[in-house]
Amino acid sequence: MSTQANDDVIAPVSAERLPVSAAAPNADRAVSGRTRTFDNPRLRKDFADQGAFLYLEDFLAPEVTAQLVHSARSLLDEVNRNYLPGHKQGGSVSRHTIDRLAPFVAELYRSKELIGWLEQLSGDKLQLSPADDPHAYALYYYTRPGDHIGWHYDTSYYDGRRYTLLLGVIDESSCRLDYELHTRNADVPDQPGSVQIPPGGLVFFDGDKLRHRITPAGANEMRVSLTFEYVTDPNMRPWRRFISNMKDAIAYFGFRQVFRQMTARGKDRS
Ligand SMILES: [Fe+2]
User: Fold this and answer.
1) What are the residue boundaries of the Fe2OG dioxygenase domain, all occurrences included (predicted)?
2) Contact, 52 vs 188, CB < 8 A?
3) Are 77 and 91 a contacting pair, CB within 8 Å?
4) Is 169:69 a contact under the CB 8 Å cutoff?
C-alpha cells in the first residue's frame, strides 16, 4: 500500500466538516426513544431519595450526542473566557450565541418530551427560563490547565425553584463533578459523591440543594458540558435581577452578552 493510499485511509475527518447539522435529529423523537425505555418510577424515587439529584451515565440518543459534539467543536471560536481567582476559570457560550449558530441545542432545550420527563422526575411543573437569561442553555468549556469551578450552588434568583440539567458533551479530561447531597436538609447526613460524566450522560438537580464543583482540568485536556436551566416561576425581583446579571457578566458570559438583550429590549420600548 502506498503512503498516499494509507494517508487516505487514516486521514482524520474534522468534526467541523461533517454535515451533521443538515441531518439534525428530531429532538422530541430522540428523547422519547430513550425515556420510554427507562424505569421512570424508579428514577423518580432515586431523584427524591438523593435530595433532588439524579445521575444517568447513558441518557442521550447517540445521534443527539453526535450533534452536540459537532456544535461544541464548531463554537470553539465563540467561547468567552473568564477567570475569578480562587473560584472559577473556564469558558462559556451563552444562549444568544447558541441561538445564532447551533439552533438544535435550543430545540432540545424546548423539547416537550424532555420537559415532561423532567417534570415526572421532579414532581414540579417546569417552565423555560426567560429570554434574557444567558444560563437558560449554555455550553461550558474546560480547555486549559486549571480550568475548574469551585464549590457552589446553582442559586435561584427567581421567585421559584431553579433546576439544572447538565449533559455531558465532550470528555477528554480528568475533570470530575464532585457533589454533596442533603447539605440543606438538617435531618439527613451529608452524602458526598463524585462522577465523571461521559458524552451523553445526564445530571439533573435542584440548584439550591446540590453543593457541587468541577475539579481542575489537566494539560491537553478538553471537557465541554451543556446545561439547561428550568424554573418553576420565571419572575425575578429587580434587585435580584441586578445581582444575577452582574454575576453572569463577570463570572460567565461578559457584559456584552448579558446586557445586549436588555439593551435591545430597552430600544424596543423607546
Ligand atoms: Fe453549577
Assistant:
1) 130-232
2) no
3) no
4) yes
Q: How far, in Å, is the centroid of ligand 1 from the Cα of 45?
A: 23
Q: Does residue 31 lie within any of the structural domains? A: no
For 56-93, the pLDDT digits (tens) are 999 999 999 999 999 999 999 999 998 888 889 999 99
Cell of 127: 417552565
Ligand 1 centroid from CA 81, angstroms? 17
Query: In terms of Cα–Cα distance, which of 116, 27, 112 is closest to 68?
Result: 27
Taking the C-alpha atoms of residue 51 and residue 209, their distance in angstroms, rounded to an integer, is: 7
> Is 13 part of any domain?
no
Q: How far does residue 4's CA lie from ligand 1's centre (Å)? A: 48
200 C-beta neighbours (distance < 10 Å), count: 22
User: What is the Cα–Cα distance from 123 to 154, expressed in whole angstroms?
Assistant: 19
Distance 185 CA to ligand 1 centre (A): 19
Number of domains in the chain: 1
> Which pTM does this prediction carry?
0.85
Query: Taking ligand 1, which is a single-atom ion, which protein residues have CB atoms under 5 Å away?
Result: 154
